[in-house]
Amino acid sequence: MLLPLQIGITGGIGSGKSVVCKLFSCLGIPVYNADSRAKWLTNHNLQIIKSVVALLGSDAYDAEGLYNTSYVSSLVFKNEDLLKKLNAIIHPVVMQDTADWVENHATSPYVVKEAAIMNKAGDRNALDFVVVVEAPLELRVSRILQRDKRSEDEIRAIVKRQVSDEERKKVADFFINNDEESALIPQVLKLHNIFKAGKISN
Ligand SMILES: CC(C)(COP(=O)(O)OP(=O)(O)OC[C@H]1O[C@@H](n2cnc3c(N)ncnc32)[C@H](O)[C@@H]1O)[C@@H](O)C(=O)NCCC(=O)NCCS
Ligand SMILES: Nc1ncnc2c1ncn2[C@@H]1O[C@H](COP(=O)(O)OP(=O)(O)OP(=O)(O)O)[C@@H](O)[C@H]1O
């Protein structure tokens, strides 16, 4: 089967991945959000549920049986080993789910996959190109303070568990500057025209 060009959009917490992906979506491009899809799967995939409970205990799900993200977040972002183990449970299922999703969008000129952690050097998965969304750390922290109910310490703990800006740069084919000085829409349109035409150059 002929698959569409697969573009990864990544960046640290608060960089603006979702905002950028909304712009691609407005242009008619299918977007796969790995964070939200992972959460859906963690609520519905029995193998994941069983393994998450074995790893983190039954409190990982609330009284209604829903994934208790604030509880899990409070455990794993403080503990690298636990986060690695949780990733090892969830990621293979998300990878397969992503591959199925791409096949279902085979007629699109290209598709976009949004994820915070696709971007370890050498870990490009099936991606043809990686776009890194960048913004200064302090701006990212202040955005999340406004968006979420997280404390500044929690946000900085997440940043610490994520791939560093330097690592991200190593796998980037393109950058989007989301520092609120440079306009986003022209940057997204430029990439859209490149990807749509299958013409790849910086
Ligand atoms: C830890 C969990 C419970 C936190 O959920 P919560 O709704 O509180 O926060 P949210 O999902 O918005 O994540 C907060 C920030 O952390 C980032 N993040 C999420 N998981 C990870 C991870 N495994 N490694 C690094 N950063 C991560 C997100 O991209 C976001 O920037 C949840 O994200 C989770 O189960 N993560 C592990 C699965 C995973 O890796 N998902 C990512 C896609 S495969
Ligand atoms: N250019 C911008 N101007 C104003 N607000 C912005 C801009 N970019 C992002 N934001 C705001 O900052 C917050 C974080 O952006 P967004 O959710 O897109 O980041 P993200 O990288 O997807 O974060 P996460 O990794 O947590 O999912 C959101 O509330 C968003 O509306």
UniProtKB/TrEMBL annotation:
GO molecular function, one term: dephospho-CoA kinase activity
Biological process (GO), any one: coenzyme A biosynthetic process
PROSITE patterns referenced in this protein's UniProt entry, alphabetically: DPCK
Pathway: Cofactor biosynthesis; coenzyme A biosynthesis; CoA from (R)-pantothenate: step 5/5
EC numbers for this chain: 2.7.1.24
Keywords: ATP-binding, Coenzyme A biosynthesis, Cytoplasm, Kinase, Nucleotide-binding, Transferase
GO cellular component: cytoplasm
Compartment list: Cytoplasm
Gene3D superfamilies, per the entry: P-loop containing nucleotide triphosphate hydrolases
Keyword field contains Isomerase: no
List of residues binding ATP: 14-19
Primary location group: cytoplasm
Catalytic activity: 3'-dephospho-CoA + ATP = ADP + CoA + H(+)
Top-level EC class: transferase
Any Pfam family: CoaE
UniProt keyword annotation of Isomerase present: no
InterPro entries on file: Depp_CoAkinase (IPR001977), P-loop_NTPase (IPR027417)
Family from the record: Belongs to the CoaE family.
PANTHER family, per database record: BIFUNCTIONAL COENZYME A SYNTHASE-RELATED (PTHR10695:SF46), DEPHOSPHO-COA KINASE-RELATED (PTHR10695)
Chain's role: Catalyzes the phosphorylation of the 3'-hydroxyl group of dephosphocoenzyme A to form coenzyme A.
Protein name, UniProt field: Dephospho-CoA kinase
Gene label: coaE
